Amino acid sequence: MEQEISLREIIETLWKGKWIIASITAIAVLLAALYSFVMVIPTYESKSSVIINNTDLPIGSLTEYTNNSTSRDVVVEVMKSPEVLQSTIEELKLERSVSSLQGSLNVTKPKNNELLINLSIQGSNRDLIAKILEAVVTNTKKHISSNLSDYITSYKSMYENKLKEQEESLDEY
């Protein structure tokens, strides 16, 4: 003999256990809220984009060096370099190692744009990770500027010496 399932019986059974269902639901919501607000530390991600802007310089040996030292690949390597990251750690008084910062700093080069570099970093303190990205970009600019300045200064000295030699040879005639 087939037993029919009555919708009325199912609803009556659920209605009799409504307090158990409500209690279990309330406990589950309470536990989820407790876990979400107390136990889980939020993770934030800060992103930044850098555009490499090579200016047109007069043709000469300085142009080639300047363009090479400000190429996207070189800038990415400088951003991830221990010197720049150590400067960032010292500047912000971070309690982490260079390798830790290198591991958390994500630097990507989009394939469709040769002038763009994307940076991102994750952490639990959103203000701090934004400051880290800002400091990495600033320290990268300082590092590249310093290298260019040193190179230009060495060229200046070399040309000044050549000029003196030429003036001396002209004075001899």
How would you portray this structure in words?
The protein folds into two domains: 8-39; 44-156, 2-Layer Sandwich (Alpha-Beta Plaits), CATH 3.30.70. The chain contains seven helices and three strands; from the N terminus they run ααβααααββα. The protein has helices at 7-16, 18-39, 61-69, 72-79, 82-92, 98-104, 126-172; strands at residues 44-51, 105-108, 116-123. It has a three-stranded antiparallel sheet with strand order 1-3-2. α3 (61-69) runs antiparallel to α7 (126-172), α5 (82-92) crosses α6 and α5 (82-92) crosses α7. The longest helix has 47 residues, at 126-172. The protein is rod-shaped and about 125 Å long. The N and C termini lie far apart (130 Å).
Gist of the model:
The protein has 173 residues and is mostly helical. It contains 7 helices and 3 strands, in the order H-H-E-H-H-H-H-E-E-H.
Features:
173 residues; mainly alpha; Alpha-Beta Plaits; three-stranded antiparallel β-sheet; 66% helix
Which spans have pLDDT < 50 for at least 5 consecutive residues? none
Mean pLDDT over all positions: 86
How many strands in all? 3
The third-level CATH topology of the largest domain is Alpha-Beta Plaits
Q: What is the distance, rounded to the nearest whole angstrom, between the alpha carbons of the first and last residues?
A: 130 Å
Radius of gyration: 32 Å
Strand order of the largest sheet: 1-3-2
Helix content: 55-70%
Residue fraction in strands: 5-15%
- Annotated CATH architecture of the largest domain: 2-Layer Sandwich
Q: Quickly give the structural class.
A: mainly alpha
Q: Which quaternary structure do these chains form?
A: single chain
Top CATH class of the largest domain: Alpha Beta
Instruction: Tell me the major beta sheet.
Output: 3 strands, antiparallel
Which overall shape is indicated by the principal axes computed on the Cα atoms?
Answer: rod-shaped
Number of helices: 7
Tally of individual domains: 2
What is the ordering of alpha helices and beta strands? HHEHHHHEEH
